[in-house]
């Protein structure tokens, strides 16, 4: 098994599990509020998120942080995992063309 396929299937399985857990939590609370990736990251490792922000704003661009990465960090983690897993699965597929 290709390393891309293994990583892709791991991301897809993890993303699906997080989606199911998010749906169950939202059904029990009677409201839809997906947990944002940035919020989860700040709960697990707040210094890492602050460090990334200061690095990007000082060394690369404030625009990149505010207009590109912040909207990505507002997405639910399960969505990012499913998108990333799908991209890896697509990029790791075998080429079936004959020479």
Task: Provide an overview of this structure.
The chain is mainly alpha-helical and 99 residues long. It has 2 domains: 1-34 and 77-94; 36-75, no CATH class. 78% of the residues lie in helices and 0% in strands. It has helices at residues 3-29, 37-44, 46-60, 62-73, 77-91. The longest helix has 27 residues, at 3-29. The protein is flat, with a radius of gyration of 17 Å. Keywords: Membrane, Transmembrane, Transmembrane helix.
Topology, element by element:
Elements: H1 3-29, H2 37-44, H3 46-60, H4 62-73, H5 77-91
Helix pairs in contact: 1-5, 2-3, 3-4
Transmembrane segments: 68-90
Protein name: NADH dehydrogenase subunit 6
Keywords: Membrane, Transmembrane, Transmembrane helix
Number of structurally distinct domains: 2
The number of helices is: 5
Give the overall average pLDDT.
Answer: 87
The 3D shape can be described as flat
The low-confidence runs, each spanning 5 or more residues with pLDDT under 50, are none
Euclidean distance between termini CA atoms: 23 Å
Main beta-sheet annotation? none
Q: Would you tell me the structural class of the helices and strands?
A: mainly alpha
Beta-strand content: under 5%
Strand tally, please?
Answer: 0
Q: Give the fraction of residues assigned to helices.
A: over 70%
Task: Compute the CA-based radius of gyration.
Answer: 17 Å
The ordered H/E elements are HHHHH
Structure described in brief:
Keywords: Membrane, Transmembrane, Transmembrane helix. The protein has about 100 residues and is mainly alpha-helical.
Please describe the structure with a list of short key phrases separated by commas or semicolons.
mainly alpha, 2 domains, 99 residues
């Amino acid at each position: 098994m290709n390393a891309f396929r293994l990583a892709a299937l791991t991301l897809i399985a993890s993303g699906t599990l997080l989606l199911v857990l998010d749906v169950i939590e939202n059904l029990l609370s009677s409201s839809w509020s997906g947990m944002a990736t940035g919020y989860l990251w700040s709960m697990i490792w707040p210094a890492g998120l602050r460090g990334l922000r200061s690095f990007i704003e000082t060394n690369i661009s404030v625009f990149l942080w505010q207009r590109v990465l912040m909207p990505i960090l507002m997405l639910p983690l399960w969505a990012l995992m499913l998108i990333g897993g799908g991209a890896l699965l697509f990029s790791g597929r075998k080429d079936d063309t004959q020479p």
